[in-house]
């Protein structure tokens, strides 16, 4: 797994097992994706942390934190992204 500048190894481990490293929530909604990369957002309304994760052969290979909607991350329309985190 590739460490990134804004997530520590513990946080990456959380994400790799489908857990939000900020609040422990295990449900994410999907955002934009491209290639191996998938943006996800924690559904906990007090958290709403967003990450860009990349999977290869069903393993998470890298992840990084991206801005929340309220931090300028843009709006993700519910109907635009049918795929959820596996
Ligand atoms: Zn969360």
Radius of gyration from CA coordinates: 12 Å
- What order do the strands of the largest sheet run in, or round the barrel if closed? 1-2-3-4
Number of helices: 1
Distinct ligand kinds: zinc ion
H/E element string?
A: HEEEE
Mean pLDDT: 86
Helix content: under 10%
Question: Can you put this structure into words, describing what you see?
Answer:
The chain has a domain at 9-68. It is globular, with a radius of gyration of 12 Å. The model has no long low-confidence stretch (mean pLDDT 86). By secondary structure, it is mainly beta. Strand 3 (50-56) and strand 4 form a beta hairpin. It is built from 1 helix and 4 strands, in the order H-E-E-E-E. Strands 1-2-3-4 form a 4-stranded antiparallel β-sheet, covered by helices on one side. Residues 20, 22-23, 25, 42, 44, 47, 49 line the site of zinc ion (ZN). The site of zinc ion (ZN) has 8 residues, from loops.
